[in-house]
């Protein structure tokens, strides 16, 4: 039925994106030769910092208006209850942190990749993106993420020069400044993204001529703050590399559920966009126990504790908070706080969820 047509128009759109991208690349070709080793973060930084004129085209407009370098926060989400309650909590905290000192947070967009508006368009600024055609994600739903970003970057009018790619299960604990600079992205390093270990597989997508495998940073697409123009180039490649990796049995097996993270890291490196690695960008309870200097709490892991406050990982705790408990029901307001002895990171997380749900009108509806 419509599936073939949809696929066809996807191919057309995507080809258009690639053509645009090729034009950009050829336009930049002479510029690129100025950098003997463009993807090494050090050389990129030094080449740029000695001559600020090079980065003016991106920075001019914003510096003339204001000294702040604002970034736009974008969160990709489906229309599931699971993603929606997380987005509502996320946006609540975004709004609270945005106007505090030190914030360089600009606009916010939920990129909803279900293909149609939902009931929360008025509550959360939303861009509706089309999902991949049936079957194209090969059961790996997060492949919709790069495709959603490609559509948003092509179609939406984004005022800010920088983009923060965030996720529904992020809670902003502090106002976030522009951590990106000198043409580099700012990213959180994940211990489980190990480009060196998978060099043989990665070389299929990042050939020798692009430089050492260490040019691929140990990151995913989120959290990353990166220049909008850089992301416009990276996103179509990210999409392409994700699909190519998913089709490659060796890569699919090696990378599993973090395939699309590797794909972003590779795409960024292919475009010579290095990243400043900020370990303190975010914490992940229950492994990280204190908030410290972190900007984001990422609640991707379940938090299970006994009533003595001892972690019972792998075993359902007498007290627990796990986002997966609420995959098709709304979490109730006023979740029970953890017992004494549970780390600050977990206590803060539950308190912040509670504050959001207490204040968001019509919670649970
Ligand atoms: C897309 O991926 C294929 C396979 O890895 C590669 O040959 C091609 O050059 C890529 N194109 C772009 C624009 O990234
Ligand atoms: C939240 O629940 C606790 C018991 O867990 C109760 O003492 C408290 O009054 C409740 N707060 C609100 C605002 O409902
Ligand atoms: C990391 C970074 O470059 N931060 C800069 C962001 O912009 C402000 C000005 O608004 C500078 O003071 C920061 O140094």
Note down, in words, how this protein is organized:
By secondary structure, the chain is of the alpha/beta class. It has two domains: 49-58 and 68-281, Spore Coat Polysaccharide Biosynthesis Protein SpsA, Chain A, CATH 3.90.550.10; 285-359, no CATH class. Helix content is 39%, strand content 13%. The chain has ten helices and twelve strands. It has helices at residues 2-33, 41-50, 56-65, 81-98, 144-155, 199-202, 228-247, 249-255, 259-270, 344-359; strands at residues 71-77, 105-112, 126-128, 162-166, 170-172, 185-187, 224-227, 275-277, 282-283, 296-298, 303-305, 319-321. Strands 3-2-1-4-7-6-8 form a seven-stranded mixed beta sheet, with helices on both faces. The longest helix is centred in the N-terminal third of the chain and has 32 residues, at 2-33. The radius of gyration is 21 Å and the shape is globular. Residues 1-8 and 15-65 have low confidence and may be disordered. The protein binds 2-acetamido-2-deoxy-beta-D-glucopyranose (3 copies). One 2-acetamido-2-deoxy-beta-D-glucopyranose binds at residues 18, 205, 237, 240, 244. One 2-acetamido-2-deoxy-beta-D-glucopyranose (NAG) binds at residues 67-69, 177-179, 181. Pfam families: HPAT (PF23452). GO terms for molecular function: glycosyltransferase activity. Residues 71-363 form the Hydroxyproline O-arabinosyltransferase-like domain.
Outline the fold blueprint.
Elements: H1 2-33, H2 41-50, H3 56-65, E1 71-77, H4 81-98, E2 105-112, E3 126-128, H5 144-155, E4 162-166, E5 170-172, E6 185-187, H6 199-202, E7 224-227, H7 228-247, H8 249-255, H9 259-270, E8 275-277, E9 282-283, E10 296-298, E11 303-305, E12 319-321, H10 344-359
Parallel strand pairs: 1-2, 1-4, 2-3, 6-8, 9-10
Antiparallel strand pairs: 4-7, 5-10, 6-7, 11-12
Helix pairs in contact: 1-7, 4-10, 5-7, 7-9
This protein binds 2-acetamido-2-deoxy-beta-D-glucopyranose (3 copies).
């Amino acid at each position: 039925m419509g599936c073939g047509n949809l696929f066809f128009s996807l191919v057309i759109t995507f080809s258009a994106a690639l053509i645009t991208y090729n034009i950009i690349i050829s336009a930049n070709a002479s510029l690129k030769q100025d950098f003997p080793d463009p993807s090494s973060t050090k050389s990129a930084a030094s080449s740029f910092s000695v001559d600020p004129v090079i980065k003016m085209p991106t920075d001019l407009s914003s510096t003339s208006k204001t000294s702040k370098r604002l970034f736009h926060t974008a969160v990709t989400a489906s229309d599931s209850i699971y993603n929606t309650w997380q987005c509502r909590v996320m946006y609540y905290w975004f709004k609270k942190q945005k106007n505090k000192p030190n914030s360089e947070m600009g606009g916010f967009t939920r990129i909803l990749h279900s293909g149609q508006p939902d009931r929360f368009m008025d509550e959360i600024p939303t861009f509706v993106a089309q999902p991949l055609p049936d079957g194209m994600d090969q059961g790996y739903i997060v492949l919709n993420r790069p495709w959603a970003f490609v559509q948003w970057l092509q179609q939406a009018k984004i005022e800010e020069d920088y983009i923060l790619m965030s996720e529904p299960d992020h809670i902003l604990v502090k106002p976030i400044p522009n951590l990106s600079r000198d043409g580099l992205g700012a990213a959180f390093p994940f211990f489980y993204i190990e480009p060196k270990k998978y060099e043989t597989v990665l070389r299929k997508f990042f050939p020798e001529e692009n430089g050492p495998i260490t040019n691929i940073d140990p990151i995913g697409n989120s959290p990353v703050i990166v220049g909008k123009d850089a992301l416009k180039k990276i996103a179509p490649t990210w999409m392409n590399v994700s699909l190519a990796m998913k089709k490659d049995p060796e890569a699919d097996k090696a990378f599993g559920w973090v395939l699309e993270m590797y794909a972003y890291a590779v795409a960024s490196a292919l475009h010579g966009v290095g990243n400043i690695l900020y370990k303190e960008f975010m914490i992940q309870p229950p492994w990280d126990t204190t908030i410290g200097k972190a900007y984001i709490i990422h609640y991707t892991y379940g938090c299970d504790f006994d009533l003595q406050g001892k972690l019972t990982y792998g075993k359902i705790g007498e007290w627990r908070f796990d986002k997966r408990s609420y995959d098709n029901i709304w979490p109730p307001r006023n979740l029970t706080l953890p017992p004494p002895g549970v780390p600050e990171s977990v206590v803060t997380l539950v308190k912040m969820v509670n504050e959001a749900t207490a204040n968001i009108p019509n919670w649970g509806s």
